[in-house]
Design brief:
homotetramer, about 425 residues, alpha/beta, Rossmann fold, 2 domains, 6-stranded parallel sheet, 4-stranded antiparallel sheet, about 45% helix, manganese (chains A, B, C, D), NAD (chains A, B, C, D)
């Protein structure tokens, strides 16, 4: 592929994460020669866009690179002819997230941004916006890759795969985080570690680990039992039981704590709520602090405080993928893509999270080494069925599908609670759910 | 098929249900010419066997039929050359059932004989006994059909299909009960009603109903919403929500209340337990009363009180199946059989409950009319995965598989509780669980 | 189902087969109460329609039944409100059939009406006409069942299933003929024989035979080896080799001779052609004689000579199917229907020929007892792939798909011959192939 | 992976190809540090082994590398502790090959070493020998990779996958040859070309080609139509028709000429045979000349004449695979491996030829981009079914499966010819077919 000059559009460019992404673009400029970087946001985000955009320009100027940064509220201008489109938007901002956490909690359920009833609500709000972006991409940059980071990334990516009509790959920093944590457990460089990950976004299992090509999966399970640090910033660090891990035969991801350690997680949640805090509140405070830092005209690098924000490796993931596509690299990354039989116990048109070869044409699944046993399969299938129903509910504004989605979700677990929570969600978020009118 | 004289062996022949079965044999003698009827039981059941066996003999004498009734503790004698073997045994008797109800309840979970952690415990106790019976059948009557009624009938039948090496069909009175209740709702003869049932034992969905060949599924869902009586004797009669039923697009079975209406069911259970009663206690009392009646040497018919016992239509189901096999009838019945792709979202070697053509060679699935949507699929798959794990745990005495089974069961729902409940089960039922030694 | 009065439309009503069908309607009137029988034909067939229609009226009058027979060239009038539509049309009449036999023969290939390049040509001519009929049915009698007898019946039915948008079942007299021949070999009443047939139209295998419910498949294979009479009127009666049959493990159908005994069949064909006769010529003469008979105003029954025509049991098959649908009978018949996984080695949307339960809603596959081994699978799959390509070619007028279809057909066998034969077909039948313009 | 010193065993080390392989080992020594190279042969090959082994030693000495070359007739010594085992044996030597070419030709069929009845005969002779080698490997070097080049490589590899119990990958120089020819057509370096190959050995299709990451498949089909050189040394260079290629949508492999251009190939074969030559005769002469050259004690490089032999790139393929495994390289190569659903229209346990990621654990399929259409699927499935039957026939000495295998092979095409050819094969090769005794 001739090294042409690239145009990248970042939807939700006013996000506090943007400096992370810009730092990645700078570091990888030699292999990802971006010429035009569009940061686009909505009217409500114009203030933040101005602040973070100015920082981005200072960072690039300091690096001495010929990347033109454009700040705009005109999404169509940003998308026209783009090579890559990245989304990091949040419909309803952090106030909506606080509701996603509080509404389920009021019924004794897990309230979380991406999982359970909270993630469900976020999906309902986000999918119509993303599909609207897809309409523009189809018209203005039909060859662009849409890299979707917007949570719940698996559900949103499935909606795009089924209804968006654009080339898309869903991304998450969890797989790379897992790989880094495993490298830490084995005290080796991350490049020496290979992980085989299967499942769906925020519900994946690491079914095999190799260090220098040698299978060390059993050793990993022994090391991981009870070990701390095997989680994301935003998830309490409850340890795994050794017998449980070995009979599971795989390392669950951080979010599995909501499913496997529900009581502990609920207890933790309720303590937090008693103190009056949701994760949304924490993030709000962190973001306010970050934007104060960003305003400093002397600042021309990513401030270290950003790493506390929870999105570690986010830039790494996005830039690695763009780089491998642009350079037709044929390396293996863990991404969210159409299944097509790669995980035989899930529908062909499901979005799955797994290892794939990345080249100029996108991502293609690599066949996992081992069949998925029933201990993984059962939970995987029921959550995927929930996701399918959620996509249908979000796209068509279908109350019945929404009710069925929540009913079968393991973190809701009954039709009665599902209905109560659903009615609250539709009422509280009504402004962002026009499809249910 | 020449109308040869048949030999039938009833394992657990001392059960209070036996008069029901004998009544069926009498009524259908003209098409199911049984010559030898063996009622076999274990030493501990010899007293009940004598009582119920004497009643059986009086019933047959009164009907004037040439059926020879044999009462024996020698299972091999009963099995030798049998055409049909029926199981209605209960490992650990009603005391074990009481534990199955109480252990889960102590952790705030549903305690039930066939579903959830209670059904799991029963499966662990029952499967080794059934597989031992299969060893005898393979040797003594390899052409016999094993008709398995023993609960959890789906799991036990799956164990036989995978490890028993005999011809088997699993049976339950729930499908015929559903059909009768639907006939009642439409106020028509049951023979005019066809039901399409898909799923697994005690977790099936009626996805289509026809009266006189005309599809009345939507009308059924409307009638069923809120209607009483749509359940078995032993399950509280909470009504279904109309919106829920219509978006589900199918009629759930009675046991679905444990999954869809968990809170109400738990509340009901806890009230019962507060009053000091489990279902096992109720059954114990009923059985004691029945055996008092059975002792009456004047009694030579099935006493009407037996119908209160909960096994309505049990005889109907068993005798219909034997009759259709014996007469190569090619009619359609709802049975538990190997899937082989009939329900594509479940493994080929899973035991499924669905409509099948019954002929001299056994049962073959009839392809359901409609694909199974995600609202049914998700729950079905996770419970089936639990069943697969339970079969492995029961056959191999595998603690890890047992732990994983309970962890993913929707009525347990976390690894922590699973471990606590499992450890209690293994301790309390230790005498019946030699495979875990 | 209330016994309402039925309307039946027979497209191609002027066919010489019609008296056969009418005789069936008369014999089964008590269970298939037809009120209106429309015989419809095209202008070119109006003479024959008048003759055969008059005979039909005399037959019904003699039987004293209140069936109104209508003769018409107005297809829409015939279809309006019909309960059953039956097709027995021949696009291009027997002259086109003669070409179907001669064109392939000119290249040293089998020339046959339903198989190979001849059947391919007939499919190209027929599918557009049938889909045009479907358009009328969708508008005028959307609840009607289209019973398709038109050859190649499997390919035409697949086209209707994929593109027709009407309820359809494909029919052939071959399966019932097979069952009758097997009954003959065992010297028992046909009602005592069950056959399990799997495959596709004119390429099915009888994989299991039971007499009175007892499996006699191996005995059948022994009896069938070398036996005469195991074929249709129009296929030479070359016997099967015993070793071949036993290693195949199933009884091939008559048309398999074209595939398994190609040299003998080609030799036979070439001898016939040397004498100047094609099967089309024979049929032409037979038909002429039949119509002479039909003209006789004294004739009011089906003349016995019709049975020489080759369509034995045709009426039996059609009337049995209508009767089972009308009476919601739930019996098992061998029909051509959508696969949906019933034969797992073929695509879900393929038309397959297999046993199905027939009720008021149509036909649903019964799961075959045994998996299909590679000796059957390979030939079945390649011919089905040919059929898929033929449907696409016929519907879209796609030259490339037509070329690929013939190339992979085992009776053509190379791209070079495929192209030559295809070009001849397109040229010779141009008047009937508007889709290739 | 620590760069340990490797042991490689070459079964059939006396082959004329060995210098090719040795040259590859020399060229890649820096990344494939072989310490022990065992060339093993049978008694009958000891003369050739001495000659070619001496040359191998001179080549390594000249290169100044510390590779110890061992010449031995003791296979077990060669296998003990090996890291890689490569097979290049020919059961029955070239005389048997001559029969493989002449027997089918006598019936008017294609006679070819790897395809059709000739390849079938070779499979029957080879599989028992290879499975015997597998027994030794399981005992003496259970962690070794068996790299199988022995033709028919796909069938032999399938036999090993099903019955061998060792880690194996089947190899062929055809895929790399295809890639090189395509690079030639586009006049670019081969490293800039990616090919997506799907199918089975000697019957694969190149379904997509990219140059520098850009899809150029349509351009390839246009260039390939009529072009020369798109074949192996041993296959006549008949060109492809443009309409045919474009409707196929993929580039067939060289061996497809036997299927798609059967008449031309037969004609060519018959001309050759009239002149009294088979390919075996040509190879015999070439080999004799090569061994004359090899004897020259001055020769210490691979003589250029070897490239005329037909096995171009053979060394490249073998050494690339060993290198990627040894270095855990995770690059993509086209290999023969277990399907596991990667090509959904073939059985899971079939051996398929396709792109795979190669790492220390072996090869895992990369999901092809496009579904396989019926024009490819049909031929692929029937030939794979033939291969399955051939494996069963070869392993179990099953006459019936052998008969069915040949019957469905498109290059045999009828049961009559199949039986004649089979009986000739069993008689002529009797000494090498003990399993049919």
């Amino acid at each position: 592929m001739t090294k042409k000059e690239l145009k990248v559009a970042v939807i939700g460019g006013g996000s506090s994460y943007t400096p992370e992404l810009v730092e990645g673009f700078i570091r990888h400029y030699h292999e990802l020669p971006i010429k035009e970087l569009y940061l686009v946001d909505i009217e409500a985000g114009s203030g933040k866009l101005a602040i973070v955009g100015a920082l981005a320009k200072r960072m690039i100027a300091k690096a001495g690179l010929p990347i033109d940064v454009h700040l705009t509220l005109d999404r169509r201008e940003a998308l026209r002819g783009a090579d890559f489109v990245s989304t990091q938007l949040r419909v309803g901002l952090l106030d909506a997230r606080a509701l996603d956490e509080r509404i389920p909690a009021a019924y004794g359920l897990i309230g979380q941004e991406t999982t359970g009833a909270g993630g469900f609500a976020k999906a309902l709000r986000t999918i119509p916006v993303i599909l609207d972006i897809c309409r523009d991409i189809r018209e203005l940059s039909p060859d662009a890759f849409l890299l979707n980071f917007t949570n719940p990334a698996g559900i949103v990516t499935e909606a795009v795969l089924k209804y968006g009509g654009v080339k898309t790959i869903g991304l998450c920093n969890l797989p790379i985080g897992t790989r880094m944590q495993i490298a830490g457990l084995f005290e080796v460089e991350v490049s020496r570690v290979d992980v085989e990950i299967v499942g769906i976004n925020h519900l994946n299992w690491t079914t095999r680990v190799a260090v220098d090509g040698t299978d060390v999966t059993q050793a990993l399970l022994s090391k991981a039992a009870g070990a701390g640090g095997l989680t994301m910033k935003n998830i309490p660090d409850f340890g795994w039981d050794s017998e449980f891990l070995h009979s599971l035969g795989a390392l669950p991801c951080s979010y599995h704590r909501y499913y496997y350690l529900t009581e502990q997680m609920l207890e933790h949640q309720n303590e937090q709520l008693k103190e009056g805090t949701t994760r949304a509140d924490v993030v709000k405070r962190v973001e306010a602090e970050l934007f104060e830092l960003y305003k400093d005209p002397q600042l021309s690098v990513k401030p270290p405080q950003l790493e506390q924000r929870g999105g570690a490796y986010y830039s790494e993931v996005a830039v690695s993928l763009m780089t491998s596509i642009h350079n037709d690299r044929k390396d293996i990354q863990t991404v969210n893509i159409r299944n097509n039989g790669a995980i035989p116990c899930l529908p062909d048109d499901a979005c799955v999270e797994m290892n794939a070869v990345i080249d100029a044409s996108g991502a293609r699944p690599v066949q996992p080494r081992t069949p998925i046993g029933p201990q993984i399969r059962g939970l995987l299938q029921v959550v995927k069925a929930y996701e399918e129903l959620t996509v249908e509910a979000a796209v068509h504004g279908d109350y019945g599908m929404a009710l069925q989605a929540l009913t079968i979700h393991p973190l809701v677990g009954s039709a009665d609670k599902a209905k109560q929570v659903l009615d609250d969600i539709l009422k509280e978020h009504a402004g962002y759910l026009p499809q249910f009118k």
